[in-house]
């Protein structure tokens, strides 16, 4: 029985699972995005996010602990360097899982797991949060009145487009000078 066993064993022995998660985490840190199955991505998220949190404080102790999980000097350099520059101010949630469909061979659910602040397409779509205000029915008339007053106070566009012309010289003044 598996009472109280809270994580997915992924059909592997403990050593195989540990090595696989270490390799996947290294790839994720170095490449910023990897494609894998949904079950592996969910386990990888639980594996990587504590490492990123630990990397926020750059100390020898934290580097050694991260190295014990990742076993790659390049990944440690990338994690404590460029990754923390991007996600260091974030309070958590450093990874994103995007489902991509099902694999052809065995119909396993596939996804992309990526570091959040590295997806430029998602950053473009992110707009500043609007102020959410509660509106009531009786407030709409007041809003219309203020809009009408503002429109009346602003001069029309036609008046702005007219350019001042230079004073015209009449023929009579030219004749008098001669």
The percent range for strand residues is 5-15%
Strand order of the largest sheet: 1-3-2
Oligomer: single chain
Shape designation: elongated
The main sheet comes to: 3 strands, antiparallel
Helix and strand pattern = HEHHHEEHHHH
Uncertain residue segments: none
Number of strands: 3
Question: Helicity range of the residues?
Answer: 40-55%
Number of helices: 8
Describe the protein's topology.
Layout: H1 14-31, E1 33-37, H2 38-55, H3 60-70, H4 73-87, E2 95-102, E3 109-115, H5 120-125, H6 139-153, H7 157-161, H8 171-177
Antiparallel strand pairs: 1-3, 2-3
Helix pairs in contact: 1-2, 1-4, 3-4
Short account of what is shown:
The protein is mainly alpha-helical. It has eight helices and three strands.
Describe this structure in words.
- The protein is mainly alpha-helical.
- Helices cover 53% and strands 11% of the residues.
- The chain contains 8 helices and 3 strands.
- The termini are far apart.
């Amino acid at each position: 029985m598996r009472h109280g066993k809270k994580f997915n064993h992924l059909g592997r022995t403990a050593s195989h699972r540990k090595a696989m998660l270490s390799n996947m985490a290294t790839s994720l840190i170095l490449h910023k995005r990897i494609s894998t199955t949904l079950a592996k991505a969910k386990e990888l998220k639980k594996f990587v996010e504590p490492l990123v949190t630990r990397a926020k404080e750059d100390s020898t102790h934290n580097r050694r602990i991260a190295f014990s999980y990742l076993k790659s000097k390049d990944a440690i350099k990338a994690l404590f360097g460029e990754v923390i520059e991007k996600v260091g101010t974030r309070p958590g949630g450093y990874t994103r899982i995007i489902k991509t469909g099902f694999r052809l061979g065995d119909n396993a659910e596939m996804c992309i797991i990526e570091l959040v602040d590295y997806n430029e397409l998602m950053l473009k779509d992110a707009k500043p949060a609007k102020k959410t205000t509660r509106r009531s029915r009786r407030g709409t008339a007041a809003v219309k009145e203020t809009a009408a007053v503002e429109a009346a106070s602003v001069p029309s566009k036609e008046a702005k487009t007219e350019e001042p012309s230079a004073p015209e010289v009449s023929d009579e003044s030219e004749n008098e000078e001669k």
